[in-house]
Amino acid sequence: MLHALAKHAGWSLALACKGDLHIDDHHTAEDCCIALGYAFAKSLGSASGLARFGSAYAPLDEALSRAVVDLSNRPFSVVELGLVREKIGDLSCEMVPHCLQSFAQAARVTLHVDCLRGHNDHHRAESAFKALAVAIRIATTRIPGKEGEVPSTKGTLSV
Q1: Cβ(35)–Cβ(106) under 8 Å?
Q2: Contact at 8 Å (CB) between 82 and 124?
Q3: Is 0.85 surpassed by the pTM of this model?
Q4: Could you report the per-residue pLDDT of 7-66, keeping only the tens digit for each?
Q5: Which residues 6+ apart lie within 8 Å of 26 measured at CB?
Q6: Taking Cα atoms as reference points, which of 68, 60, 54, 53 lies closest to residue 112?
């Protein structure tokens, strides 16, 4: 899922993690997404000149997901994927929305991700990550002529 996120967001991603998988997947998956969120925020730097908002739909066979992103510096997330299986591969399905929430908190973004339809949980999750990737790519697009301009009516997106 992280590979799909990186690929469709246009990122180069190498991630190595040592976790406590002998217990369960919770902390390992969560920590990877927290680290990814921090790396995103650090590499993004200032939102000056960026689109700030991004939204996208992504299908995967019968599944269709929507993601909306705001580079607001106000971390918040709503993730509704409707996953019903216990696991996708070795990842607990309950961790999929939690990972997206962890990313949003660490990246200091607002995101809404919904799977609108689909019956295969793998397809539902993957289409959600792809939709999020495209929404992030749109939100981080530099707007010509807006260099140095903060995309806010308040003039700031700082804490």
Answers
A1: yes
A2: yes
A3: yes
A4: 999 999 998 888 776 666 787 899 999 999 999 999 988 887 889 999 999 999 999 999
A5: 92, 95, 98
A6: 68
